[in-house]
């Protein structure tokens, strides 16, 4: 129902408009490019009572017909100058402007002689964005649009429309629009996934800044990836679900929706996360059915609390389906049953809001596009999924750019065959295998490869890997330039000079060089050892310490600079160094000794006989080698070896495996500690961070040597994984 606010006729008055006004559907228009839609405004001159402003009609999205009697028009007589002003409450970004006027010469209704669009950050000093002189020559009894663009996007809190006209004439106006920037790039991101833990860390100012930055590059929707964790029985909002407690400091759901309301951004609310999905998948139907019930209850609770928000535009189901773990129609059928149960309930609750999923595909292991197509034809024939936001898999290493078209084509064909109403979006990954920002050239190429199959590009994630609040601002600057100009800049940084190297000890080399320059900015440097890329540093630092090397070994190094686009400099000159000889400690004190672990090895890669870590057997660079034991976790775990009695210790090491193609990753850190009591009194003797290595399959020792004054009966080795992935270990040795 339209809410009318009484108008005080004076020099300035305010017209307020509710989001549910006639002619403005908050749900239909939340992501409109017109950022004035539904906004309140002030006017310097009141409309004539014969043609009044009946309550926010200048920004309600309703255009008047070419009739003086149409109530959508408002008019002023003999007003040679008048203006309208909108206060957005915080800075917004825009570039295009439009105002609609009426011309009817026979009724003395004339178009303005001048229309100016202005902006300000203090409501005192206004700057012109663009202007137009009188329009409508040669036409009559018709609406005449005045539209123009600023030369570049404008970011400001206030926007003003100033109208100048002839004395003794009527001026009729019915609609004013201010539009977000529209990129010229053919494939651009329009959305992002946000994990609530990140949003919970933001201040109110940071939330506002994040949405401002999204607006600057045309992002009109955001997925809050989950609202609850059904394994931990926690939620990211003050939930009413029995047995659940809030795990976040702030109400992240309310904050996201509030920002969506303010910025006209569509917010899709994810239901529950549960880490056991990656253990059970569809193999435990009791567990899966229970999760369907949890999803229904959660949706009901969220809608009851937040359904009045205009930005609440849909739902996201966060269980990520893939073809490796759902290999046959048996698993497909169970997944379809889960989807149907949840979606049918949601459609009863919110009939007009879409339900979105984001699956991913594996290209290795004999899996095919035809099998993927069959899987989705089967599921879509049985489940009313509105949108498939398909992960492209590039950042995660599941696919290459060259493979994208065939997998997206197969998905599109499945949709066409089974449920044509389902939309296909691209969920573009914006990170690389180091969980750092992806080069903007690669992101552009990935989107271009699937553009003909999808209707929209979302991402995982603008917020985590492009936002200037989270990563080097040069990534945002480079993406924004692509958004505006349609191309990714191609100027390479200058070549690093003055590379020098010195040996610190038998395992360590110190490098230094002179900084490179770039037209936009250098993001970091890549270190090549013996012509192999072993380390990428995402800082401006012009030094690097290479650790965990082999003693008495010759190494050659070179350095390349790179920018956010992915442009690389030429290689620096090469520096050659040789590490010093190390001491060999012949006695393996841990050989055959017993140990305990805080986390059991995975049943697929077990600790055979509970003896693999001290039996002296080293595995090959193949993850199926039985010498390895594996754990799939992002949490730290530890081993404690009992040497039997107090021993003097000169060296300790633990041996790990890297096979990136199957997400067997080297640990982020390994810590070594000793004690004479198995339960307490541990003293840390050293930490080893992940050393610089290439991307090939390989084994790597994390080693402390030449220790002095170290002794103990018990040795504890704590492993901190690089991410939620596999770590494989085969041997721990303690030597003197």
Molecular structure report:
There is one protein chain. The chain folds into four domains: 13-179, Jelly Rolls (Sandwich); 194-293 and 316-333 and 355-485, Glycosidases (TIM Barrel); 497-578, Immunoglobulin-like (Sandwich), CATH 2.60.40.10; 595-735, Jelly Rolls (Sandwich), CATH 2.60.120.1190. The longest helix is centred in the middle third of the chain and has 22 residues, at 285-306. Helix 8 runs parallel beside helix 9. It is of the alpha+beta class. Strands 1, 2, 3, 4, 5, 6, 7 and 8 form an eight-stranded antiparallel sheet that branches. Residues 582-736 form the F5/8 type C domain. InterPro entries: DUF4434, FA58C, FN3_dom, FN3_sf, Galactose-bd-like_sf, GH, Ig-like_fold. This is DUF4434 domain-containing protein. Residues 492-582 form the Fibronectin type-III domain.
């Amino acid at each position: 129902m339209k809410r009318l606010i009484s108008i005080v006729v004076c020099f300035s008055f305010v017209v307020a408009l509710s989001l549910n006004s006639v002619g403005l559907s908050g749900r239909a228009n939340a992501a409109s490019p017109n950022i004035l839609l539904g906004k309140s405004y002030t006017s310097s001159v009141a409309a004539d009572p014969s043609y009044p402003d009946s309550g926010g009609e200048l920004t309600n999205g309703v255009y008047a017909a070419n009739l003086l009697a149409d109530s959508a028009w408002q008019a002023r007589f003999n007003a040679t100058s008048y203006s309208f002003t909108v206060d957005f409450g915080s800075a917004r970004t825009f570039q295009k402007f439009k105002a609609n006027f009426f011309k009817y010469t026979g009724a003395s209704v004339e178009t303005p002689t001048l229309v100016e669009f202005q902006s300000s950050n203090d409501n005192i000093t206004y700057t012109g964005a663009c202007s137009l002189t009188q329009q409508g020559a040669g036409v009559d009894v018709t609406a005449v649009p005045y539209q123009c663009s600023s030369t570049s996007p404008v970011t400001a809190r206030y926007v003003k429309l100033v109208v100048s006209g002839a004395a003794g004439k009527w001026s009729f106006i019915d609609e004013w629009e201010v539009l977000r920037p529209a990129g010229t790039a053919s494939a651009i991101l329009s959305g992002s996934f946000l994990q609530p833990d990140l949003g919970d860390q933001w201040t109110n100012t940071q939330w506002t800044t994040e949405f401002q930055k999204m607006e600057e590059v045309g992002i009109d929707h955001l997925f809050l990836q989950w609202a609850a964790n059904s394994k931990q029985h926690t939620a990211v909002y003050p939930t009413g679900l029995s047995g659940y407690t809030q795990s976040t400091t702030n109400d992240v759901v309310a904050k996201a929706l509030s920002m969506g309301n303010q910025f006209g951004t569509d917010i899709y609310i994810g239901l529950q996360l549960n880490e056991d999905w990656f253990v059970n998948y569809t193999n435990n139907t009791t567990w899966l059915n229970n999760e369907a019930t949890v999803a229904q209850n959660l949706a009901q609770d969220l809608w009851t609390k937040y359904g009045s928000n205009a930005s609440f535009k849909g739902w996201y189901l966060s269980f990520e389906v893939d073809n490796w773990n759902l290999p046959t129609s048996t698993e497909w059928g169970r997944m379809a049953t889960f989807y149907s149960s949840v979606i049918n309930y949601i459609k009863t609750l919110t009939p007009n809001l879409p339900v979105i999923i984001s699956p991913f595909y594996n290209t290795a292991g004999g899996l095919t596009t035809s099998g993927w197509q069959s899987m989705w034809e089967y599921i879509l024939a049985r489940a009313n999924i509105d949108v498939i936001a398909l992960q492209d898999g590039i950042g995660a290493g599941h696919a290459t750019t060259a493979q994208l078209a065939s997998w997206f084509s197969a998905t599109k064909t499945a949709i066409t065959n089974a449920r044509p109403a389902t939309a296909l979006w691209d969920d573009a990954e914006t990170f690389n295998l180091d969980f750092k920002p992806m080069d903007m050239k690669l992101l552009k190429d990935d989107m271009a490869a699937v553009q003909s199959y999808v209707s929209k590009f979302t991402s995982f994630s603008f917020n985590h890997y492009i936002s200037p609040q989270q990563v080097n601002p040069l990534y945002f600057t480079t993406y924004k330039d692509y958004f505006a100009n349609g191309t990714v800049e191609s100027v390479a940084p200058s070549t690093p000079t003055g590379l020098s190297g010195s040996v610190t000890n038998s395992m360590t080399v110190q490098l230094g060089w002179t900084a490179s320059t770039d037209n936009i900015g250098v993001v970091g440097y890549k270190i090549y050892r013996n012509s192999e890329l072993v380390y990428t540093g995402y800082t401006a630092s012009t030094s690097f310490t290479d650790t965990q090397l082999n003693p008495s070994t010759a190494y050659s190094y070179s350095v390349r600079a790179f920018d956010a686009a992915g442009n690389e400099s030429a290689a620096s000159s090469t520096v050659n160094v040789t590490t010093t000889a190390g001491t060999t400690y012949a006695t393996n004190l841990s050989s055959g000794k017993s140990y305990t672990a805080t986390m059991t090895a995975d049943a697929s890669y077990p600790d055979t006989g509970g003896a693999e870590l001290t039996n002296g057997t080293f595995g090959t660079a193949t993850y199926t080698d039985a010498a390895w034991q594996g754990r799939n976790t992002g949490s730290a775990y530890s081993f404690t070896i009992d040497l039997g009695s107090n021993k003097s210790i000169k060296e300790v090491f633990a041996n790990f495996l890297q096979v990136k193609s199957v997400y067997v990753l080297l640990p982020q850190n390994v810590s070594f500690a000793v004690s004479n009591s198995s339960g307490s009194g541990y003293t840390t003797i050293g930490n080893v961070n992940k050393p610089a290595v290439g991307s090939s399959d390989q084994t790597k020792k994390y080693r402390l040597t030449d220790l002095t004054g170290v002794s103990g009966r018990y040795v504890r080795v704590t492993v901190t994984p690089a991410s939620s992935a596999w770590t494989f270990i085969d041997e721990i040795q303690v030597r003197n």
